[in-house]
Specification:
heterotetramer, A alpha/beta (404), B alpha+beta (649), C alpha/beta (416), D alpha+beta (146), A: 404 residues, alpha/beta, Rossmann fold, 2 domains, three-stranded mixed beta sheet, 17 helices, 51% helix, B: 649 residues, alpha+beta, Aldehyde Ferredoxin Oxidoreductase Protein, subunit A, domain 3, 3 domains, six-stranded mixed beta sheet, 27 helices, 19 strands, globular
Amino acid sequence: MSRTDYSDFLCPIKFCCGKLALETLPAELRVYNARKPLILFSNKAVINGLIDPVKQAFDDSEMVAGIYDGVPESPTLSTIRELSDIYIKNGHDALIAVGSGSVMNLAKVLNIVVSGEPGDLKTCQGEDKITKPLNPFFVVPEASATGLMANGSACIDNFSFTSRYLIPDYLAIDPRIVQQETVGVIIDAAMRALSSSSFAYTLPDTDYFIDPYAYLAIQTICENLIPVIENADSKKGFKDYLIMNDTEKGKMALVTASVIGGFISFCQPAGIVMRLSEALSEYCQLSSGILAGLLLPYGLEYAMLKEGYQTEKLLLALAGPDVYSRTPENERGKSAMGILRDIQDKLFHLTDGYIPRTLAGAGISENQFSEMIERMSQNDEGIDSKGCLSILNHAREGRPVSDI
Amino acid sequence: MGKGYMGKVLFVDLSKGELKEETIPDEVYQKYIGGMGLAAYLLYNKIPANADPLGPDNIIGFLPGLLTGTGSFFTGRWMVAAKSPLTGSWGDANCGGSLSPAIKRCGYDGIFFSGISKKPVYLYIDHHTKELRDASEYWGKDAVEAEEMLIAASGSKKTRVACIGEAGEKLSLISGVSTDKGRMAGRSGIGAVMGSKKLKAIVLNGKKRIQVHDKAEMKHLSKLANKFVKFQVPLPNLMPGMAGILMRALPNAMAQDGMLYKMMLRKWGTVSMNQLSPEMGDSPIKNWMGSSKDWGFSKSYSTHPGKILKREKVKYHCYSCPLGCGGICSMKGKYKETHKPEYETVLALGGLCMNKDADSIFYLNEILNRAGMDTISAGAAAAFAIECYENGILTKKDTDGLELKWGNSKAITQLIEKMIKREGIGDLLADGVKKAAEKIGKGAEQYAIHAGGQELPMHDARNDPGFALHYTAEPTPGRHTLGAGLYYEMFQLWKVAKKLPKVLPLYMKGAKYKTDNEKAVMGATNSKFMSVVNSAGGCKFGMFIGAKRVRLFDWLNAATGWNKTPEEYLAMGENIQTIKQSFNVKHGIEPKNITVSDRVLGKPFQTEGANKGRTVDLEPVRSAYWSEFGWNPETGKPTPERMAEFTNP
Amino acid sequence: MYLPEYCEFLSPVQIASGHHVLEKIPGFLKALNAKRPLILADKGVTAAGLIGIVEDAIKDNVQIGAIDDDVPPDSDLKVVSRLSDVYRKNNCDAIIAVGGGSVLDTAKGLNILVSEDADNLMEFAGANKLKRPLKPFIAIPTTAGTGSELTMAAVIADHDNFIKILFGSRFLLPDIAIIDSRMTLTLPAFFTAATAMDAMTHAVESYICLQKNPLSDAHALSAISLISKNLLNVIRKPDDQEGRLLLAKAATLAGMAFSNSTVGIVHTLGHSVGGVCGVPHGTCMSIFLPYGLEYNYHLVNPFIAELLFPLAGPEVYADTPENKRAEKTIEYIRQLNQDLHDATGGRHARFLSEILNRDGEQMVKKSHFDAIARISIGDGTKFYNPEEIDYDDSMLVLEASWDGRPLNRNLVKKNA
Amino acid sequence: MAYSIIDECIGCGACRTLCPAGAITGEKEQVHVINKEFCIECGTCGRICANEAVEDGFGILCQRVKRKDWKKPVFNAGLCASCRTCVDTCPVGCISLSSSIVKKDPREYPFLEDPKACVSCGFCEADCPVDAITLEILSKETQAAA
């Protein structure tokens, strides 16, 4: 039974992006017969002015909403206890997480507790231990949200949970919340999404149901990442959210893409690039998303040679049907990799060298590579350490992988 | 996330001595709420059709309300239900005190007893154990004494007890269940059912927590209700009596706002009616044949509210009640204190028998509470005996030498003491006026004032025809707690549920006697609402404050997380009424045969007193009332399909 | 990429696709904690032996509550209430619907009755009347085209007073859609062509209509390329399992696309022709598809041009200059209809006059045009079509599609 | 969700004697066990345990609080509706009613009859329908006077 034989796919998220996305929250809650949501903000939300638009959206809907704007940077179990006490005492029946990834992560764990009982923290730990759907869980991400909120995993203190019931029911992307964000964070989120989507899109045996999501994520990132970064510092007064210029639209698109990327990273086992970049990020100050972007072309070339990943297909998503049709069939793979490296170059110039062109710029020595790969293979035997080493070396020299 | 209810009931088989828990699915609560509704649903299915009320097949249940212990006010009532030995129909009795939360803290929404125990037992439940224990040393003790001994034996002053006295043990059909040293669940003769099962008491001391859906909302609603309860204006002691005279004199009537009655309850309790009711014609006098003329201001003066208040040592609040209409009064003689007698007791032992002696009323109130006998039925039986004696049907020989004359308080006291001990004439009267009249014969039936066997309470239908409707059309006949014209005015349900008829602020008294369909709609709404109130553990006096001020439906939604509208709750009330009537049909009761004597309906009308010239045309309103529930207007029976809905698979 | 000011996308149905997926149903039922499913189908499905396959696949580790295949071609209120008694008598706790649009719509209506414990379906007519998830419901489509296993709507007819009642709610969606190639393996060539073109229309129209959104577009492009690559081979080699599976997946992708971005004039006219003359839905779709593109040409031709790539592939796309691509797309679709016409021995009609019923009579006559045009004005899909449609517009398109000549585009009133 | 005792327990038995629900069992110097079914989550064991060997329902270690710092109920008679909810909900029964709290008012109001027995669980404060009760560290004399 080959891979194409059986595939199982579910995307429970309802996407809603655009102007007045916040105003749809009350109506969407009513679909779930929820009448009293608890809205969580990070403790920095007040400064970023995230609270007023949300409050205003609920005031017009005569639906009572509880607001909690004190989620600390790295929440602990006692935050969960305090919040579950508020949730239960006030009879809340839905959770809305607004803003950064840490708020989303906390909300997921809180939802396990309030939909069941505190004891579930112990029994639902680990892989797919949650048996029934939880209370409604909505997310309103800001640009810095790494898209991981769309995957079905969460962790707090030393508890970690993975289940499809943790995936949010509703995703509202509203320009008033996406707003401004530092360039580094946007790139990190975009490149992480680009690598998870690229690997999913070029699978040796196509998963036709993930394809559209991956295609859209790759296409969005390629079209919007560079333009958004180019005029990211045009701090246009973000008062009038009804008339969105291209940058704001671009930012919204990027956030959508990063969420889709996060969701895809949940459906597909993490590709070799993702695992390498996670490990690498401990050795240098670059974030794992940026490192993933760096390694992506080399990882794909290696995967194409080793497992027959369809890299030529990637050109369609990266450059669109025109370029794809005009490029001869046998060069499509190479030119796709060229585009990826070209993006890396542009980022190098735009961030004045903060993002290096190649892995050499990340300042990691060679023996650190082997030590890292050694450590990785301990806790995960499936690692093809020879392949990893070759990818890292090629990435360091900026030389395309041509043989294994 | 809590739901307000515990989700479990306990079944005790007294023949086998086995205890078995049964979980109740959420759908049942969403249909029958709890308390009376849950009892009706379970007992309709579990008591076989021809069960002897005093036999092993009858099942008696003790149930808290759904809202008990959830942080709502006025919801501390508990319900005892069974097939009634007195009326042979659905029987239930309602009481306050602090037993209701105790049942819930044992983890149950109801404790049910079937079978018959060989020797006297009582059920003991605490946080760790639940078992039947030998009660032979308590059998024979009066209810207050037994309660004190059982609490002492349990070793914790937090233990709550409900028990029967001598009357229940001697299977008197007008006996009830006592708690908190004298709060009585007196009607339907439920005490006799406990006595027949050799069940002396239930002794509870659980510690489980009661969880609700939205605690903040519960507190918000309770604070709102408390604001209205605390609003009080100074009231002089004779004001109620004067108001009564004025109401009798005026040709028109004012729609009552419950706040006025609330203020009277807060100051005096129900005894505030002791002069008001007789003066305006609400109280039946001299076994229903007298009038306000025979029991004037001077005769009722000895029990006017101020007099009772002077004896009151301390106010008494039932569990979760901010109003506190009860009280503990001091007394001379053998017993030093008693629960403040209620208006019903003072009139049943006073005006009904023309007995002016307040001390005898206090003394009788205490011995009846200790015996576990219903004070209303006892007073009615005494009045019945006096009238029989007056008309020569009972001679001195029959009454073991007692001079049963109107107002002879010494003879009345001794008669009631004999009833408690079932001695001589007492044994004859201890099963209620209907059974007594059947035994005596010689035309005594005309003096036995009851509905379906249940002695009528102290509210005269000739003054408020609503009472006649609810005495005869309800599945539990002869009750003043389910509805009346006055109750509809005070509930003010039209302020929360649309499409309900509104009441004019001022209307001619004659309008009360018209038999238009609106009366039936109001009556049906009262019954539906009270079915919901009795299922939620609610107290009628709290509901009188007004539906917009004491928000029972909002409390129910906040406690359970449901989102039902008032209309949906009234529909659930209709459902509960229908299952009680189905119970009656299943047990062979003919609703159309439940009537009251013509004397109560003013046929012929009285020639003097407040209700002069008043007659009540009952039939048209009653059949319209029945069709409001979709029952057959002639027979008052629900359709077989409707009844089939209640049989659980 | 086209990014509108505001857009929504939702398709929360678990898709289990492959060649041997039916065997996994017991596992899915256990996950939904259901034990006694009611299997629903129609006469055609049992005749094709599909029920037998489903039954064998699950009967040894699932207790089948009941099997009922008495579902008429278009679902009916009375049938739904009859089925609710069957469901309750056999105390089933889940529904498995095997069949096309009408079986799935019937199953959705049935699920409302049994989950809400109601007996009058009318209480739930309209949009968003349902307040909570319904009982477990697994859909097994047997036509690779209608995509109704992914729509949040169900249309149930009330034959007594000749009206169609619409039910709309996300809770009508099945929990799981099973795409098993065996279900369409034996679908005859003529039906395969018609249902595949139905799916193609869903994808194409969702790409050009008013609620166009990025995710629907991505799904539409995948669907179109899958259909155009595989349809003709499957018609020529019906037992090609891989091809059947890809066509079925394409139909599901098209369903995901159009249930979020809705369809336009092709469906407006298609529904009316189906209603008036009883022509199968797929046939109407394939005939009106080119006309729909021509009718909206002046407003959406850049999007039509983009469709050439998934339709014709990179070579044709590269050879056709940019300003000619839109025409080429329309021409390509006409050519596809022509090839299907030849491959099915003439049964696949290219234009209205060619539609024949089983015994060879013409099903659509010019005399029907007036009724068709009047009904089409009342069809809901009209509002999502880029260009407005009125009585004369419908007549214009009907006239053109009578004998297959291309629509004269400058006759189209341009007022949107 | 019930509390639980972890291995750091040295079996001193303080929690066993104080637990109002009698839910804790164990021998001297043995690790004690909380019976999930009886635990009413009053937190007493967490407050009294000297070496913090008790976890609450969330798996968070409870902090020890010296008994003299245990917060106990203070009743505001002005707000109180004398509805007896606190008397009923108190797991140790240390709240009683008295009619001599408010002068010339025959109504009974709650008071802390037995301060030493109070385990500072806060049920009275949580359950009071009109928020008339607040938990505070009682000063020496109020503790003695009650």
